[in-house]
Each structure stands twice: as C-alpha cells, then as structure tokens.
Amino acid sequence: MDDFAIAVSRYRRRKYDQSIQLCDKILQVNSQDQSTWVLKASSLIRKLFLDDIEIDEQGIGDQLMNDDSINTVARPGTSLQRPGSQAGQVLRIYYFWMGRLQTGYARPVTNRQEAQENAVKTARVGTRLGTARPMTQGGRYIRLGTASLQQMGDQFIMVDKLDMKKMAAKPVVSRVLCDYLIYVEHNPRKALQLAAEATQANNYSDWWWKERLGKAYFMLGLYREAEKQFESSIKMQEMIKTQLQLAKYQIHKHIRIYLRLDQPTTAIELYKRNSERYPHEISYLIGIARVYDQLNQPEKALPFYQNTLIKDNCNIEAVASLGAQHFYLDQPETALQFYKRLLQLGLYTAEIWNNIGLCCFYSGQYDLFYSCFERALSVADEQQRAEVWYNLSHIFINLGDSGTAYQCLKISLCYDPHHGEAYNNLAVVQSKRKEFDKAKLNFQKAIESNEFIYEPIYNLSVLHFNQQDYSQCYSLVQKTLKLFPDHSDSLELNEKVLQVLQQI
Amino acid sequence: MNQEGQVQQVQESLILKKPQRIINRYKHNQLLYNYFVIRDFKSAQELIEKLTQEHGDIHEYANQIQGYIFKMTGQLSKSTETFKKFLSFNEQDQEVLKTIAKNLQLDGRFKISLDVAQKALNLKKNDWEVFYTIGNCYYAQKDFDKALINYKRAFELSINETTYNRLGKFYLSLEKYDEALAVYKTALNSQPQNNELKALLGVLLLRMGQTQEAKRYLESVTATDTKSLLGLGSIMQDQESYDEALVYYRKLIAIHPTSAQVWNNIAMCYYGKQEILPAIISLKRAIYYDPFESTIHFNMGLVHLYEKQYMSAFHYFQTAITLNPDDSQSYMYLGIALNKLNDFQNACRSFERALELDKEKDYLIYLNYCIILLQRGDESSQYAQQIFRYFCDQYKEQEQHYDNRCKKEVVQELKSQIYKYLKS
Questions:
Q1: Smallest CA–CA separation between B64 and chain A, in Å?
Q2: Within chain A, which residues score under 70 in pLDDT?
Q3: Interface confidence: ipTM more than 0.85
Q4: B159-239: CATH superfamily
Q5: Which sections of the protein are TPR repeats (chain B) (predicted)?
Q6: Superfamily grouping for domain B257-355
C-alpha cells in the first residue's frame, strides 16, 4: 500500500505520532511533496492542539501588565479583580487563631489544568537552522517554491524564511500553515502577518481569516483589536448559516475578551444569550459557572454545573466542581458520590483520593478515610504530598490529636517549605501547647512565605496582645485590616488596642 | 486645609511685623490641641515640625502632643523618648512621670516602669492612675497579691471604667465571683446609667446561677450589646424556650459570624427542639472555627448518640477526652456508646474511669452504669446492686438541685423499675 495512504489512515485514526513518522519517511525521499507536507502539518497541529477556549487564566505577568481594565475601583460583585474583600460576600479562607483552620483542600483536577500542562510542554520546541535543496518530480508532487518549508532535523518549517505574501495566495496550504504557527510554533506575530496578508488577498471577505487574525491579536494581548476582528467575523458568519459550529466558537471567544477586560457581568449576559440560541452547547453553561466561581458566588454557579451534567454526564469539570461545592455546603456524603463518579471516569490522582478521604472523614466513615489518604500519598508528587499531609493534619486536629497533627504539618513543610497555611497552623498548634516563642517564629515564617493571607498576621497580633506587647500588636492589626478591611475580629482587636493606647 | 491656610497667614504676618522681642510660644497651642482632638495627626505633626523649627526643641506643648501621637500610633518607645526629653524641663513633673510609667508598662518594661511609678507616687500620694499602672506591672509579672492591693487602691480612689473593669476581671480570673459582684455593684451605684456595667453584672450573675436577677439586668440593656445577647440567649435556652433563644443568637451571629461558642449554643437549641440536622450542621461549623474546644466535640457526641450513630458518637467523645482528659461526663457517655457497640468490657472500663474522675458524685453516672450492668445479665448483677445503692445515696443528696440534663420523672421511673427488677 502507498505510504501516503497509510499515513492518511493513521491520521484519521488519530495516531498522529505514527502518521508523522511515516510522513517524515516520505519527505526524506521527496522533500517537496506538498500533500505529505500538509498531512504532517495537520498531524502536528492535531497532536499539539489544545482547546484554547479552555485556557483563560491569566498569569501573574499578565495581571501586572494589565492596562486594559479601566476601572481600578471595582463595584461589589462586578469585578474579578478583588473578589472576597467586599462586604456581604462569602469568604473563602477561614483559619485563624484559636484554630480556625483552613479546610483548604486541593481543587479537583479539571480538564482545564491538563490543557495548561500541555501548553507548557509544547512551548519548548527547539529551533535549528538549516537549508535543503529543492527537488522536482511529477505526479502529485508540486514544487512549493521555497526552501523554508522544508523539513530539517527537528525543525519542520523555517518560519523566519517564509514569504507570507506568497503563502497567503495558496488557500489550503496557508490555512494549515496558519494553524501550525498558532498551535505548534506559538508564534502569533508570524500568524498575524500571514492572516493579514490572507485577509487582504481574499478582499476582506473571508470570516475564517478574520477569526484567525483576531486569535493572533488575542495571543499578542491586543484585546480591543481582537474584539474588532471577531465582531466583523461574526457579522459575516451569520449570513452563512451552515457554519454554526464555528460561529459558536467565535462567540465564545468574544465572551472571553469581556472576561479578560474584567467585565464579568457583560460576559455572563453574552453567555446566557448564546446559550438560549444554542441550548445544547455546554461550554456556555460551564462558562457561566466558571465566572460565578471566580466572582466567589458558588451558590449561583451550582445550577449551571448541574445543567451541564444533564446534557453531558461525563463532564469532568462539572463533576469535580459539584463535588467541591457540596463539600463546602456541609454535604460530604453527596460530594463523595461525585468523587466516586470521577474515579469511574478513569481519573486516578492524588487530589481525588485526598478529597474522597476528606469526604469519608467528614461524613463519619472513619474506617475508610485512612486508606484513601494512603492511596493519595502513593500517587502524589512532592507538591501534592505537602497538600495531602496538610489535610491529614486537619483530620488529626479534628480528632483532638494535636501531637500527630504537629508531625503531619512538619512533614508537609518538609515537602513544601513555603506553605504559609501550614506554618500558620503549626504555630497555632504550638501556641496551644504554650510554646509561644516557637509559635511567634512560625507565624512570622507564615507571613513571609505568603503575604496575601491575613490569618497569621491576625494570630500574631492576638499573641502579642495577650503578652501585653501593644505596639507590635497595633502595627500588626493595621496590617491585617489593610489586607481584609471587614474582618470582624480584627476590628474588635483594633478597638481594644486603641483603648489601651489612648488612655491619657 | 482652611485652618492650615490661616496658620500660614498668621505666620507671614508675624514675619512682616517682626515683633522680635517677645515670641508668644503658646499661640498655636489651641490649634494643635484641636488637631489632636479630632485625630488629624498629619496636620498636627506638620504644625509640630513648624513649631520646633521656630522655637527649637524646647516647645513644651508640642513635645507633649508629639509624645501622645507616638503613643496612639503604637510607637511606644519613641513616645517614651519624647516624654523623657520633656522631663529635662522639669524633673518634678508628676504628670510626665506617670505617663512615662504607663508607656513603659505598655511596652512590657515592667521593672523600669515600677521605678518611675514609685517616683511619681512620691510626688503625689493619691493618684489612682499610678496605682493602676503599678498593679498592671505586678500582674504582668504574675505577682497577684501585690497587683490586687494596687488595683484595690486605684478602685477606692476613683470608680471609673478602667478601675472597675480591671478589678472585676482580676477577681473573675481568680474565680472569686462574690468579690467581683461587689465591685460591679459598687460601680453601678456610682454610675446607675452605665449599660456596659449592667451587661457585665448580668453575665456574672448568670455564671453564679442567679438567673432571675441576671435577666433583669440584661433586659434593661439595649439589645445590640453582644454580651447581653449571649446572656439572654443562654437564659432562654436553660428555660427551654429555644425559639426565643435562637432569636437572640441570630442577632449575635450577624455581628460575630465566626464565633464557635455562639454556633455551639445555636446547635444545642436545635438539639433541644429535636431538630438534629441543623444541630449537626451548626456543630460542624463550630468545630470548624474552633477545633480545640472539647465542649463542642462532646455535644457532637451527644447528638450522634441521640441519632443512634454510635460509632461517630464514640469518635467525638474520644476527641473530647483527648482535649480534656479530666471530664467524667465524656467518659460516661463514651461508656454508653461503647456498650451500644457491643464492647461491654471497655464500656465498663470507661465507666470506672468516669467514677474515678467524678468529684461531684454525679448520680447519672451511677444510674447509667447500673443500667448497663443489668442489661448484661446475671454475671454482673451483684455489682449492679452495689452501684444501685450508691446511686440511691447520691440521688437523695442531689435531688433538690436544678438539673436540665434529665427529667426527674424519668429518673424516678428508672429507679423504681430497677428496684423492682432487683427485687425479683
């Protein structure tokens, strides 16, 4: 059988690695084989493809450099920037002095995280320079015209040598190339060039190129420009009703822009409008739920996750989120069902066993929880181990066994020496044992290792207050109130300290 | 800002006219005082800076205010330094000595503070603040007798919020309730309209078991005071009017959403109303906020025992025991749970331990032990008889006491049943 036919068949059966191998073999013989080239590019794209609708988490760098959000002071409940600090909202973290410890447990694995891992892996693509001689043969072998499209060693396409104008004139090759640039090379700049040329070549009337143009802008962080392109693409698209699937995709992206521009309410409205138009598309429902989650309104997210499960009962993210939410709503038995479902779906990770263990413990199934944590520890990596031991310490605290809890926290800190919460809880346990100096030290470490949690600062201030060290206490309370202005205990302590200090 | 402008104008006119000879140093004192009183520390500090530039470092009032500002913003050592500078103007200034002593005490340097306070005392014999400071120093050094003497002196010299609070709390920490009560009552005589005092008195009376009087005090206080809300709630709870108690607790939880004690009380209200699910949820929340409190775990055990979930109950009682190993009640209930789980031997051991720890000779332990022994059958009936006799003795003594754990009719009936059984 013809090698090319086999390669196509493998591509269709989603055996991309084998397909690429075969294509390599053909290309070694004839490096100008255009169809093989297209096939290899498509295989690479498919292999490394990640649904980038799924990733919209911003990195710290993005947030620092974010100059798109116009309003720096957010109205309560309308912004994603500072959820949790506004009055009347549900607070997520509670662990204080007197052992208000975090029930913090690792967020269940969602497909979102997997996609991100993928992105990290694919970003490490090496580049090597090289040249090759074009060769011509008859039949279906058409000369591509540029040496840059030739494969040399690891490097499949010499991006820098491409002439975008020429490429844009070839409708099929250019599209594959554009996807290749976006998904494999992660080179939005080149993709933008190509898309711009291609749009021009198509007299500004091709929605596909406009969409890709928008995508490239989006990757470059030029959200306003991206928005324009998407909008005009959708306008065109709606006249061609046959391409529904793609329209959805574009609308979806449209919403993402609103999210990044920090307008969650607008985004939710858009999601809702579109989910009425396409009632069977779950990505809108999940989208709404995620936005509510980020806004710290989990009770509103709940029905959307439930609806998602009605339409797609294998949706891992919905199952995991529902599990977590039921756990926090004091229904560990229900949460347990969801996590069992995740196991059925074939996920076998430390987080899930950890969560099942916690659910078992809180629903009173004491004979089961221990083995769950054992399993979690057996599959966990270092970071996860720190979390699992941290959770175990909670269990022992709940059992009143502060000695073992102390040990667990120590182990957790061995695996992750920057675990602020663990330091805090360790200090709480120590102060329960009246080892105040050690406790102070650990609170200090907790503050250093995570400057965004206010609990260790509050705890330390209480410790200073009890030891009648008022000047330290005062400055610490001020710090706490800066991080969390509505913290009722801190406000009370502040009043007490001021009362002491202001006696004249 | 307006005032600031005026100050500058005044200054400029000063410079223009140049009344060189006599400079009125006290000119800005009123303005400085105003800034200080309205807590506009920034403007005050600017003014102080200006004054020190004008007059050098010897402006008395500016220095004084500067010291107070340092103190109020928590920079105690700086404040002490400022006041010490102040002392160089006049070594015999009693007020300054007093302030320095207080500062040192707040900063935790008790010995030096005591020395300074003694100097102040030599200058003026009857100053309650000095006695109060000395008392605080002794208290921090755990010398309670000397602290008490000084607190008492301070209280005799002046009855005010600081003195009665301090003395009252001191007695409470030593569990001398009658003395504390006397202190609060004298204080209330001199300040009959003080709501805070009434709340304190009410809670204290409640703790001493004088419910009626406590209620009278607490109800006269406005209903937003947290102490009175908690007190009234617990009175209502004791009288088994749970809905009213819940009303109080609901108000309280809006103010303190993270208080484990309040959640615990709420849970026990629901338990009293036989609504188990809300009780468990509230208790879980209470444990979440304070996992080191044995009472909450104990209550959790009770609720689970009622629900016939003996394994969970066992775990919670065990936790309560690890947190508070001297509690006979926990051991008794642990014994009951173990017996229900068919571990008779360990149940017996648990009861024996409860009897060992029990100092008040609680009749319920004997009664429950007796029942368990009788349920077991013949082999332990003799021992059961003995225990029953003990129970009868204890019950006779304690019958008159108020006890909301168990209804008297139930106990009576059980007693007669066991009596009949043992006879036959």
A1: 11
A2: 49-160, 223-224, 234, 237-263, 503-504
A3: no
A4: Tetratricopeptide repeat domain (1.25.40.10)
A5: 161-194, 226-259, 294-327, 328-361
A6: Tetratricopeptide repeat domain (1.25.40.10)
